[in-house]
């Protein structure tokens, strides 16, 4: 289970502070799929970063009783100057996994072939998405944090993600930040709408989508 | 409790190892001599500056070979300079790694320092053996004191890195002040002078510098009774502990405000 208790985040802005959100309280139980909805800048990505422990909250805390992936987005988690293989090697080392297994899975899942020998800076966003997904799937987490922007891949990639994440790993929890009604409706059990520094959780996804589209 | 500590230690070792390899690959690549480059800079510095000085000032000063004296001073100084320069903004350049929770800010500082330290030791070994072969460097009088002095010097340098790294994230002024500061402290680093060369009053002041104490230990280890060395452990240990404690507090503080793209 992951519990967010009185979670708040603010950044310095001139002499004052800009509060992204305040006093968020919610929890994610194993196997649950939660969508984060909100307009640009509402704090979806920030919230995912706090849950993933990338940035620290200004107030409150995140209690993690299950393993949580790093946020799967564009930038983070990779060293651009290193090759795909080097990044895979690095990730398998810090997570204490056997590199050969990870390598096989990455080669198979990404279908990037010789491109894996090139620095990650040369990858397109779709290729990065493939690599990021492959690595986090190979490590096996209880909860996956996904920023929608990474779902940029082609049909074949979508099919693979769908199979790996929703069929094979149906028991895992998932947090998905998205603008897409389709994706939220298809994948999420609950959804939280972030707006004006507050977050409201809806157990009915369609209700959340209605609220979101009225914003 | 014990098993938890053991697990933490395993993760720590894994992370440090992985970060070391990553840093070596990004810095030196896999081409030609690769990570051996890490010792080339201190090696050339120690050797060439030593040669220049021996031409400028004659082969001996205060009873010891000038090349050996400069090498024993310059190699630690290069370690100090490189380490603190590498500590500046280390969190910003590595911030994408904060995506992995088992990696901490202190790991970055430690890894960069460790690479400099290993490079410095390899350079010392190569330069020492080469100069001993050419009869320009004495066979160390007591290798134990040389190693102890080196470790004391390293520990203090590392503690400075722990303070400078978070400070450089908090204020840009620090980065601009670094080059002049590392230059100005040279007289207080024991690099080009020994405590016995100055008046007793000045010596008392010099011995408040942890660098001077460590350098005197190393020089005693190399030259033995050909030099008069003054040193103690109180000042370097106290200073190292002090900066380490401050540094760890600052790291915690910076971690809370660190913005990761």
Please characterize this protein's 3D structure.
The complex is a heterodimer of chains A (215) and B (261). By secondary structure, chain A is an alpha/beta fold. Chain A has two domains: 1-69 and 143-215, Rossmann fold, CATH 3.40.50; 75-140. Chain A has helices at 44-52, 84-94, 99-110, 125-139, 155-168, 181-187, 205-214; strands at residues 2-13, 16-28, 33-38, 59-64, 143-147, 173-177, 190-195, 198-202. The longest helix of chain A has 15 residues, at 125-139. Chain A is globular and about 45 Å long. Chain B is an all-alpha fold and 261 residues long. Chain B has one domain. Helix content of chain B is 72%, strand content 2%. Chain B has ten helices and two strands, in the order H-H-E-E-H-H-H-H-H-H-H-H. Chain B has a two-stranded antiparallel ribbon with strand order 1-2. In chain B, a hairpin with a 2-residue loop joins strand 1 (60-61) and strand 2 (64-65). The longest helix of chain B is centred in the middle third of the chain and has 29 residues, at 105-133. Chain B is globular. Chain B starts with a helix and ends with a helix. The interface between A and B is medium-sized, with 25 and 25 residues.
